[in-house]
Amino acid sequence: MEGLQGVFNGDFLPLEDIKISPMSRAYTFADAIYEVVPFIQGRPVALDLHLKRLLKSCKAIDLDIDILRVQREIEKLAQDALTNNTGYVYYQITRGQDRVRNHLYALDLIPETFGYATITKQTTRIQKAKIVQDIRWGRCDIKSTALLGNIMLMNQANFEGANEIIMHRDGLVTEAGSSNVFMIMNRKVITPPKESNILAGITRELLLKHFSQDFELLEEACHIDALAEADVVFLTSSTKGIMAIDQIQDNKYCFNQANSTFVELKTAFNNFLNTAF
Ligand code: PDD
User: Fold this and answer.
1) Which of 52, 87, 127, 168 has the least C-beta neighbours within 10 A?
2) CA distance 142 to 34
3) How far is the CA of 180 from the centre of ligand 1 (A)?
């Protein structure tokens, strides 16, 4: 993180100069929500949708925030670090500092805000996923920093030689470790519906909104057994864009990234990202 600039409670500082109290509820309870806003060549992708989701997360945990100030800080972080670069701004809002640790929060706490910007490099690693039971809580629609379930599952998979997970509840696919899941079957492009206790990913939303005329895009429950019949399984997120999975469960299922529907959709989406924002 050396050299990166951050913003803490409105002050722009090098990351190493930001000091946070251990009584911050971010530290004791992960009582905080966050956003990851992608920038392509310095231009934000769907900033309005990210701010809208940030507000929704704040509302869900009863946090009051000046969203225009947040927007200005995100834009300034990007301006300083991402001009003509591709990367993202991470921005988190925490309930504030407790006097003593208490599950019940005092109503006069002042929310703490923290953000930084960084450049992303696209990975060329082979993407190997493990299918795992989704052990997370029941409100994965809130973009909470409390990601212990994801962290436990992803690291267990990593110890076992996989770099991704595809989670399911009762056999139905929910999402991946930090992205949404799609599968292509006979030219149909299917993703689990939002009701499946998943994050309403903005990349997912952009795909469904702008490509449903040209592709058969469906929000449908996906059983893990269907992964065996999929032509391609791919993930979407603000940092990954569209990224294909190469194999699942130690080569049990392998996918062909040259699949024409996948190539056409990925090309169209990348063109859209480069021209629409
Ligand atoms: N993750 N599902 C989960 C659990 C996620 O953490 C994310 C994003 C997504 C995709 O959402 P979007 O398309 O809006 O980025 C789905 C971010 C990038 C992260 O935590 O780093």
Assistant:
1) 52
2) 9
3) 7
Model confidence at 124, in pLDDT bands (50, 70, 90)?
A: confident
CA dist 231 and 228 (Å) reads: 9
DSSP 62: T
Query: Is the predicted pLDDT of residue 1 greater than 60, yes or no?
Result: no
Q: Ligand 1 atom 6: the closest Cα is on which residue?
A: 178
Whether residue 31 has its Cβ less than 6 Å from ligand 1: no
**Maximum separation of any 2 CA atoms in the chain, in Å:** 58
Tell me the C-alpha distance between 129 and 200, whole Å: 21
From residue 136, give the alpha-carbon distance in Å to each of 128, 152, 197, 227, 273.
21, 10, 9, 21, 31
CA–CA dist 165, 157 (Å, integer): 7
Whether the model clears a pTM of 0.85, i.e. scores above it, the answer is: yes
With b for 16 or more beta-carbon neighbours within 10 A and e for fewer, the 134-145 pattern comes to bebeeebbbbbe
Buried b (16+ CB within 10 A) or exposed e, 96-108: bbbeeeeeebeee
* Sign of the Cα pseudo-torsion (37, 41, 43, 45, in order): negative
d(CA 89, CA 39): 8
Q: Is the CB of 179 under 6 A from ligand 1?
A: yes
